[in-house]
């Protein structure tokens, strides 16, 4: 009975994905652009710039059993990036910094990201 009540509460709260949507996020944490302040430096001078980075959580599957023939594909919050140029007053050398155009949950790329399981313990 408690399970039925909890499922009804999750459906009413919008945290249950609904029929036909499984597997999927139980709670939509989202992967979204976020404005951050970044320090750039050139010619020994530093300035703050406002840029956009990708931030958020993506659905992760952590099954009870992981065999040699089954390893769930993990996703990370990633984005489409471009670089802007900043000229610091009194310095002839420009500085470039990354800006996220858009963000999405994408498959983890082992070429530039650690895609393995977290080696430590997480508090419950």
TrEMBL record:
Residues 30-117 form the Glycoprotein hormone subunit beta domain. GO terms for cellular component: cytoplasm; extracellular space. Residues 1-21 form the signal peptide. Gene3D superfamilies: Cystine-knot cytokines (2.10.90.10). InterPro entries: Cystine-knot_cytokine, Glyco_hormone_CN, Gonadotropin_bsu. The keyword Signal applies. Transmembrane segments: none annotated. Keywords: Disulfide bond, Hormone, Secreted, Signal. GO terms for biological process: G protein-coupled receptor signaling pathway; ovulation. It is found in: Secreted. GO terms for molecular function: hormone activity. Heterodimer of an alpha and a beta chain. PANTHER family: GLYCOPROTEIN HORMONE BETA CHAIN, LUTROPIN SUBUNIT BETA. Belongs to the glycoprotein hormones subunit beta family. Involved in gametogenesis and steroidogenesis. This is Gonadotropin subunit beta-1-like.
């Amino acid at each position: 009975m408690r399970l039925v009540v909890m499922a009804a509460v999750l459906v009413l709260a919008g945290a249950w994905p609904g029929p036909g949507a499984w597997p999927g996020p139980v709670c939509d944490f989202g992967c979204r652009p976020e404005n951050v302040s970044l320090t750039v430096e050139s010619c020994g001078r530093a300035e703050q710039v406002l840029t956009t980075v990708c931030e958020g959580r993506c659905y992760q599957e952590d099954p009870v059993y992981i065999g040699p023939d089954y390893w769930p594909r993990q996703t990370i919050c990633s984005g489409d990036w471009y670089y802007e140029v900043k000229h610091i007053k009194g310095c002839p050398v420009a500085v470039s910094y990354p800006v996220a155009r858009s963000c999405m949950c994408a498959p983890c790329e082992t070429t530039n990201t650690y895609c393995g399981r977290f080696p430590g313990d997480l508090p419950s």
